[in-house]
Amino acid sequence: MSGCGCSDIEIKDQSQRKVLYWLLGINLVMFFVEMGYGWFAQSTALIADSLDMLADATVYGIGLYVVGRAVRAKANAALISGYCEMTLGLLILVDITRRIFVGSEPVSMVIMTVGAAALIANIVCLRLIYAHKDGDVHMRASWIFSANDVIANAGVILSGALVLWLDSRWPDIVIGIVIAFVILRGAKTIVADAKNELGSEAALEKPMNCKDINLIDK
Questions:
Q1: What is the pTM of this model?
Q2: How far is CA 57 from CA 32, 75, 138, 206, 212, in A?
Q3: What distance in Å separates the CA atoms of residue 73 and residue 138, rounded to the nearest whole number?
Q4: Where is the Cation efflux protein transmembrane domain (predicted)?
Q5: For residue range 149-192, what is the model confidence (pLDDT) as tens digits?
Q6: I want to staple 55 with a disulfide (CB 3.0 to 4.6 A). Which of 88, 93, 137, 183 is the partner?
Q7: CATH: 1.25.40.180, 3.90.950.10, 3.20.20.70, 1.20.1510.10. Which one for 17-217?
Q8: pLDDT (tens digit, 9 = 90+) per residue, 37-74?
């Protein structure tokens, strides 16, 4: 035995890092764009989606940290990511409750324009992560986040159209609530997947690295 598959592992790790760097960068940029325009447009849906982008960026940062590490570390990272998303979903619901009582005047054209830009950004993210959607647990989590983001963005655009059509702030609030529950559902799926991984024998096994295998060969 000579190669021990190390080059294949390194190629996979490099591929994961490259994808996660792109996802991290895109989500950070869109967080600032959506948050800024969300406050300007007084849009619950845009602000909810921007916070989702921030949570996803955090998740991708955690994912970068565990690339190349043991399965257990990746599962723990996915678990933390899931709880982060869950917390975010609850915070969005708190903010929506505040806005229901305080009031808002969402600007429909800004909501639709920024929502469309976010949708394009997340479709790019989805294409980038597609090859890894059935891979390690932290990459599966990233796939779920990206897929949920596309759904949320479509909802944001719909809310802007309904605000314009009905001349009412309620579609924006309702879509914000829907986005929060989409986030919570995705978080629940990720937490369950991570716990499954941690409970399996594969996750508890100490991984044998290339150095260990080469020592055995000798």
A1: 0.71
A2: 12, 18, 13, 29, 35
A3: 9
A4: 24-194
A5: 888 888 889 988 998 898 888 888 888 888 888 888 878 887 88
A6: 88
A7: 1.20.1510.10
A8: 988 888 888 888 888 888 788 778 877 777 766 667 77
